[in-house]
């Protein structure tokens, strides 16, 4: 529990100058959205195998060490394995009676349950891989700029796009900071002899509020500092007539169009494969 | 600059802004609270309080949403609520939360209802107001998730009856923790020294 941050590589940008890293964030976000949509749609093993090949190709393009990427996914996969066991054991459907392997009380293992859960979990792993790859190859600032550029049409509907993207960026930036804070607080509370998850409900709430209250306090104090710092640098969101200029303007190039075209083609193939394949 | 006012005794007085505007401070608050929501969703250790109820635990994930709407108004609460919905939608193992309506709507509403509860009692007693906001926010989550789940056919009456004691414990826990957070934050904030701007900047002596 105490060293959480060592096991999470989620959201750590690696600038290794690969083709994926240099792609325009708008193109990357669009490709990501299409691929996620396609991956969510598919339900056949043949298409899942194609997804695997696709992920391998992306991995090769990103030039990231495979071990590093997998290390970041280790905790998630172990969590998913536990979930998988539950999914299989408690799987219920009207047609599973034909394929039962083992049965005891409410617990059942059937071929249908196994196949269904495997498909669902493989898909989740691929989706998680895609997300972590996007985070590993794109810096947060780029991601925010891209998202803001793509969502700009929504401004016409009166939606505060810039503000919402800002909230998102701050949230993601603060997660590692807050994780460190949780580690520090839980060590501090353990030193004082606090035992978590013991005693009656009232004692449990008290023990946990020893972490939660200081966590909120430190977060809110950082709010104070950050908002003062931003306003000192003339950040005025939500103020009429205020516009922000960019140090690095986004540029759409030929390779971005190529990436988008390839991605659309692959997603189309994936959907077609899912429709025609028999299993 | 936010136009907070601090009386000489160091007592916190809430800022006088429209609850429906977005200042820099509110954007940053929403961001940090959304960060806390994400954290709580992915670190189970602080994401729940283990309790002897059928579900085994009381969630704490709605706390940032309620804190946001109590401290900074409904918009911050609703934005944080959106993030709460997003994390539960992305993490969902059960079909209940794979339904975007059930994942998002109740959580966004937490921001609105807990702010309404807080605003109603704010003038009388801020401690009671924050406790009420905590209880109402937690109850909103439970009632709307279960209600929508029932309406859309994911849940049965038996299950809902089973959940009721859990919901009560959760509401009480939320009321206690929210009061602790809000009141201690106001104590901390009241202690901050800040020059009051009574004259235009360029005529100030410093």
Q: Of all protein chain pairs, which has the greatest interface, and how many residues does each chain bring to it?
A: A-B, 50 and 47 residues
The share of residues in helices of chain B is 55-70%
**CA radius of gyration of chain A:** 23 Å
Question: What oligomerization state is this entry in?
Answer: heterodimer
Structural class of chain B: mainly alpha
CATH architecture verdict of chain B: Orthogonal Bundle
Mean pLDDT of chain B: 82
Query: What's the number of structural domains of chain A?
Result: 2
Distance between the termini of chain A: 41 Å
Alpha carbon gap, first and last residue of chain B = 17 Å
CATH class of chain B: Mainly Alpha
Report on this model:
- The complex is a heterodimer of chains A (279) and B (206).
- Helices cover 67% and strands 3% of the residues of chain A.
- By secondary structure, chain A is mostly helical.
- Chain A has two domains: 1-156 and 249-279, no CATH class; 161-237, no CATH class.
- Chain A is flat and about 70 Å long.
- Chain A starts with 18 loop residues before the first helix and ends with a helix.
- The model of chain A has no long low-confidence stretch (mean pLDDT 83).
- Chain B has 206 residues and is mainly alpha-helical.
- Chain B contains eight helices and four strands; from the N terminus they run E-E-H-H-E-E-H-H-H-H-H-H.
- In chain B, the strands form two sheets. In chain B, strands 1-2 form a two-stranded antiparallel sheet.
- In chain B, a hairpin with a 5-residue loop joins strand 1 (5-6) and strand 2 (12-13).
- In chain B, helix 7 (126-151) packs antiparallel against helix 8.
- Chain B is elongated and about 70 Å long.
- The two termini of chain B are 17 Å apart.
Q: Helices, strands, pairings?
A:
The complex is a heterodimer of chains A (279) and B (206).
Chain A: H1 19-22, H2 25-41, H3 45-62, H4 66-89, E1 100-104, E2 107-110, H5 111-137, H6 140-151, H7 161-191, H8 201-232, H9 254-276
Antiparallel strand pairs in A: 1-2
Chain B: E1 5-6, E2 12-13, H1 24-42, H2 44-47, E3 48-50, E4 57-59, H3 63-72, H4 74-91, H5 95-98, H6 100-121, H7 126-151, H8 157-191
Antiparallel strand pairs in B: 1-2, 3-4
